[in-house]
Amino acid sequence: MVTLGLAIPTFFYYNYQGIRANGILGYLKQTAGPIWWMAWLIFPIETVSHLARILSLSVRLYANMFAGDMLTLVIFSLCPVGFPLVFMGLHVIISIIQAFVFMLLTMIYLSLAVSHEH
Active-site residue numbers? Predict the structure, then answer.
């Protein structure tokens, strides 16, 4: 639930910034695609794509943390002394990488939302 709690404000933030930078019509026009007569097809696809970003951010973070916890649990049950510390250190490193990926995706989504067509 924490990962979803991080993904939802991210979704609202980059959409807010996109509307603020381009205006409501400009932002909707950006999601309608480059060809006006294909907008009826592209707009629903882009809407689903934007909603899938919430799922992508939350599931990616949750699944990696869950897998790391399960791996640590298995290693603890097989070899309770010494060796699991290596996996706990690895889990910390993976957590840092996942936080970086979450931040990087947020920045990419934000840059796409505020971009202007030339």
Answer: 56, 60, 64
pLDDT tens digit sequence for 44-62: 998 999 899 999 888 888 8
Could you count the other beta carbons within 10 Å of the beta carbon of residue 113?
21
For the chain, give the number of residues: 118
Torsion, CA 55, CA 56, CA 61, CA 67, rounded to 10:
90
> What pTM did the predictor assign?
0.80
118 band by pLDDT with thresholds 50, 70 and 90: low
If DSSP states are collapsed to H, E and C, what string results for the chain?
Answer: CHHHHHHHHHHHHHHHHHHHHHHHHHHHHHHCCCCHHHHHHHHHHHHHHHHHHHHHHHHHHHHHHHHHHHHHHHHHHHCCCCHHHHHHHHHHHHHHHHHHHHHHHHHHHHHHHHCCCC
